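This part of the workshop introduces the protein records we will be handling. Getting from the letters to the tokens is the skill we practise here. The record below serves as our worked example for the rest of this section.

…
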Amino acid sequence: MMKKVLAVILSAVLFGAIAGGTMVGINTLSGALVQGSADTGIKGSTQDQAAADDQKEKDPDDRDDADDNEVQAQVLDVSDIVEETMPQVVSITNTMLIQQQGYGSIFDYFYGGGQPQQYEAQAAGSGVIVKKTDDELLIVTNNHVVENAEQISVTFDDGETVDAAIKGTDSTIDLAIVAVPLSSIKAETMDDIKVATLHDSEDLKIGQGVIAIGNALGFGQSVTVGYISALNREITTEEGTNSDLIQVDAAINPGNSGGALINMNGEVIGINVAKLADTSVEGVGYAIPIYKAMDVIDNLSNAKTKVEIPEDQQGRLGVYIKTINEQYAEALNMPEGVLVAGFADEDGQTSAAKDAGILQNDIITKFDGQSVSSAEDLTRLVKYYEAGSTVKVTVQRLENGQYVEKTIEVTLGSNPDAAGNGNAQNGTPDGNAVPGQQPGNNGSASPQGPDGNNGQDNGAQKGQNGQSGTDDLYEKFREFLEQYQR
């Protein structure tokens, strides 16, 4: 079946609730509330029912039509399915730290003044319980729901809230698994919890009825009903491209990300992921089909639960890194991922990556089996592994004009600065085990060049947060190309 391509404007926290009650991704349709005239399937009063029965007796030829209407009313009543599946869905709250550049005046903005500011915010999403192990409850959600999380909490159907940890993420398909220790769940809550039944078959059909359950607007679980409008949809967001999606007309509201799309047998057929946000569009939502997600869910469920290691025990790859995003990958005809720009083996130190056989200009695409698409992804992952841990690193290597995938086992080194001032090597201020590409970069590289903060080349001087000129950007990009070609 030919895939339909549709461009969608969607931010990473489209379905998020920011602290203070501000909801991201909500569109107001001129304040209008439209009332439909269609049959709701709700039976009328006793008097109305009696009149209908009397009409049937008077006109036997209309009995079949009346029976059909009764069947339609029964189909629209999904309360039994919802009652069974609601305990399979949870609300997820992601507490994160937001960093922004503060400007005291317009001159600061244009000429590089001001100071960085940091504040705490919360994003609300949903998740589906997919597995119970001997010691953990595993929940699938969207990667963008838990991205950049400082703390994650899960609220079950009975209102009980517990802390959770990321087990694995895959930004390429926008999925993540979070884990809740069984020891932190009360017995009565555990009795109420149910593991979802996943429908991993490709036998979905346009027109089949569906139910969307999720933490809409961050207010707790709610239900919407609709139909499968289309299959194999492809959408492009600022987070990347998602393909083979289910399109539905059931309302997918902010907070529904990571929630369940359920068929009329009570099986989860998809994970809600996006909606088309436009005042001229109504009833266009998307879900990742379970048949596409199953391998990723299984892989992430087997990953190491991400409990951050104390800084003085964190492992270290010993590389300088640069993000190769989708735009640069297309422009330079190279894979997306994290480019190894060099090795941090100065002053007698060793680079674990170099010692293991990783080469300069290799592009890292997976770390310990988990996809990485940016320097930030890799930096966050390494923080969860102790020095001396052996992990498999998947790279794309250019050989004879073509990229070849290789998997290399790397034994992580120790961070020489962790026991001192807490900073990672070469002045990266975040203290992460993977140093950024040069001092002042905060560990998140961009392909333009070695300077800048938070992954952007935002100043002619290192650490400066003003806007760099066109000549500076051109020069840095030229330097990058020269380095890549070597």
